[in-house]
Amino acid sequence: AFITGHEGEEKTQSSISWKELAKGVDTLVFLMGIGNLGFIVEQLISHGRSPDTPAAVIYKGTLPSQRTVTGPLKDIEALVREQNISPPGIIVVGKVVDLRKFLKWYENLPLFSKRILVTRAKDQMGGISYVLSAMGAEVLEFPTIEFASPDSFEHIDRALEELHTFHWIIFTSANGVREFFERLFKKNMDARSLAHVKIATIGPKTAQELTSYGIKADLVPKDYKAEGLLDVFKEMNVKNKRLLIPRAQEAREALEKGLQELGVDVFLAPVYKTVLPRNSNLEILKTMFKEPVDMITFTSSSTVINFFKLAEMAQLPVNEITKHTIAACIGPITAKTAKNKGFANVIESEIYTVEALTSKIIAYFTSEKEGIMENLVKMYTLSTCGHCKATKKLLTDCGISYEFTDVDLLDGESRAKALEEVRRLNPNCSFPTIVIGDKVIVGYKEEEIKKALGIS
Q1: What is the 3-state secondary structure (H, E, C) of 49-72?
Q2: Is the confidence at residue 10, as pLDDT, over 70?
Q3: Which residue intervals of the chain bear CATH 3.40.30.10?
Q4: Mean pLDDT for the stretch of residues 412-429
Q5: Which residues pair with residue 29 across a beta bridge?
Q6: At what angle do helices 226-234 and 254-261 cross, to 10 degrees?
Q7: What was the pLDDT predicted at 434?
Q8: How far is residue 44's CA from residue 432's CA, in Å, rounded to a whole number?
Q9: Residue range 2-104 in CATH 3.40.50.300
Q10: Helix axes 301-313, 331-340, angle to 10 degrees
């Protein structure tokens, strides 16, 4: 039975049939009754319900901030007071409460109750926010950057006119790829104009974005930063070659300087710039930090720098935030910026993708929960494998925490060790190779995976 827990104050007599409820119905759910908990307990016990009946009070049920207190009916008011539970919430009375230990899957999610702020550009939030939310986190979205046109298209327009003179084009970000092709198309040109030129990208996501325009990168360094690309070019004969870099208006100079030292004729062409979001609602940012934020995700140095600009504009306690909040960063450059800004606790994904960062966040928090890490699903995957992607989606949709290693994105000793472990588990060395407890599953086998997880 569902009963109002808060009758109108104008009533002089309760319209609730306490005697029938106390003895006639096993499961009772009182809506919005925390404020009247003492009265409800008194009425049930005085009308015949056993004082030892299991009871639960649920605060903000189904939300990441959900809190649950259980105990005998006679003690539940004191327990709620002790745990400082306040409205809104519901009260459940009956034997059904004893099933909680079997049904509390939501509270067992690896990121349950964690408040995580995502600072990516608004149109890029979806992926990371969805996964974090599916793992139980309360995701707070507040973009600290947005993309805009560069101050001038002069350099990129000149580069497009002289495209036939370039030997290489280097794309350093997926956004750089998109903005380059948008300008190319506006000049009534298309991908055929790039037939003669070799293309390098920094990072697999940049290479993946390039394929959406029908082009496969000739070079993707295993170390996803400027220094990694320079190491590869040092082994090549690039002296006196002409090279185009379509990039953000403000960017690190390491790549340009390194190439110039190799004798390369470098042409920089801004195709976009990162700016503070227009119309940022600082009151929303203030509200987000009225309760502690466990972690802030940063995908670039710009997101870090602009977060501090916005935080100062909102008059947030920056020193307290950097002291108590974890910064989760993609790549060493972003991590270094976060440390330089004062973050005491910084975690960094070894693979410079949002997916890898999400996996790192889950691993960080699950390691804090006693016993959870022992049951964590582990997978060896390939970043381009359809069955691997399907397995990740299945686990996410089922609310299962997991760690994954995209073996093809590793290099050197790390890759060799990963492949050795895959062969130990799966001599055919095929993907995905999934480890659930002591069971190894090879390939995307939905029913077998669910059975191993006990959710079939």
Answers
A1: CCCCCEEEEEECCCCCCCEEEEEE
A2: no
A3: 376-456
A4: 89
A5: 2, 92
A6: 10
A7: 95
A8: 55
A9: no
A10: 30
Checking if the pLDDT of 218 tops 70, the result is yes
* Distance in angstroms (rounded) separating the CA atoms of residues 305 and 337: 8
CA atoms within 13 A on the CB side of 327: 31
Query: Residue 403's beta-bridge partner residues?
Result: 378
Q: Is residue 10 packed enough to be buried (19+ CB in 10 Å), middle (13-18) or exposed (0-12)?
A: exposed
pLDDT for 339-357, tens place per residue? 999 999 999 987 777 778 8
Q: Residue 159 and residue 194: Cα distance in Å, rounded?
A: 12
- How is domain 148-275 classified at the CATH fold level? Rossmann fold (3.40.50)
**Fold (topology level) of 376-456:** Glutaredoxin (3.40.30)
Q: Are strands 89-93 and 54-59 parallel, antiparallel or unpaired?
A: antiparallel
| Residue 299 DSSP symbol | S
Element (H, E) at 341: none
Q: Where in the chain is the domain with CATH 3.40.50.10090?
A: 148-275
- What band does 456 get if pLDDT is binned at 50, 70 and 90? low
The residue assigned the tokens 């095929």 is 430
> Which residues of the chain form CATH 3.30.950.10?
2-104
13 vs 187 pLDDT, higher one = 187
pLDDT at 181 over 50: yes
Encode pLDDT of 314-327 as tens digits. Answer: 999 999 999 999 99
H or E stretch including 56? strand 54-59
Are 246 and 169 contacting, i.e. CB atoms less than 8 angstroms apart?
yes
Residue 374 pLDDT > 60, yes or no?
A: no
Structure tokens at 38: 């003492």
**Alpha-helix residue ranges (DSSP H) falling in 235-330:** 254-261, 282-288, 301-313, 318-324
- The answer to whether 366 and 347 have CB atoms below 8 angstroms apart is no
d(CA 49, CA 40): 11
Inform me whether the pLDDT recorded for 9 exceeds 80: no
What residues contact residue 401 under an 8 Å CB cut-off, 6+ apart?
109, 110, 111, 135, 362, 366, 372, 376, 377
Predicted confidence band of residue 371 (pLDDT cuts 50, 70, 90): very low
